[in-house]
TrEMBL record:
Pfam family name, one: Usp
CDD domains named in the record: USP-like
Taxonomic path: Bacteria, Bacillati, Bacillota, Clostridia, Peptostreptococcales
Gene3D superfamilies membership: HUPs
Domain UspA: 3-135
TM region positions: none
Descriptive protein name: Universal stress protein
Amino acid sequence: MNIRKVLIPIDGTERSMKSIELVKEMYSPEKVKVEIIHIKELVFIDGISISDEIKISEEYGKKLLEKAKESIPGFDVSLYFGFGYAGDEIVKRAEEQDIDIIVMTKSTKKGFSRIIGSVTNYVLKHTDSIVMIVPE
């Protein structure tokens, strides 16, 4: 049996959680290994980032990932939290983990790169994985 590796980036919005719902609808638990990823972009001021902001962001991100994992019971799920530019980190993680499919939601904004989202657009251009874009 060929098990697919699926990467689901989430950003904390209800919209991003729709990717998890799609994976649950499309695959049975024994057919996929799922990794849910949350990347926190840090803002540096004069080359300095505030350590409390990092700690709070990491705590929030890990809670968000645990909540997402609870929404996909029965599946083999791993979690990944990181800091950086979301597009870069998603592409890098997909390559490192030999991901078959990245499942992302589209943006609510107008215009092509805004329709699918700038992060999704970046991932589409830079990954070798299949990218599935979940509509609203």
